[in-house]
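To: structure desk
From: M.T.
Subject: fold request, one chain
Message: Could you run this one when you get a chance? Sequence is below, nothing fancy, just the single chain.
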Amino acid sequence: MTGPNHDTADASKVVHAQVPLSQDARRLLDSPNFASVATLMPDGAPKVEPVWVGREGDHILIATDSRGLKGKNLALDGRVALSVTDYRNPYEQVLVRGRVIETRDDNDLVVLDALSEQYLGKPFPRRKWSSRVVYVVAATVARYYKSPLEHTPS
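Reply: Done. Structure tokens follow.
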């Protein structure tokens, strides 16, 4: 329980079991669908931004610069939430809560190039990075949902 009379510092230390990703969740993660990833600022405030995501088995991969705000936030608190919507039908989605379980160097851009192939169809065009990393996320909640609504913008 959190609130003004409860210590929230222990909340970031709670460990939840990893859940497998459904076939539908895997399909959305394997397609060029943008994810919105939420990290926690040092004061506990959420920060959300769009990212490319990849998948390695039941783990979700996020490539970024470790010196950016997202990287700094994840170094302090590895809890994340992701929302991935199908770019053709935004009423189809997978919602994930999880934790970073591993941070890998990606200065040779192997993972970023694979993500760029998924999203752009070619290697990542900007080649100079000094602190590229890949965050490996284990999902503790992964909920797929497809609404019967139809996306018909005018």
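Reply (cont.): The chain has a mean pLDDT of 90. Let me know if you need anything else for the meeting.
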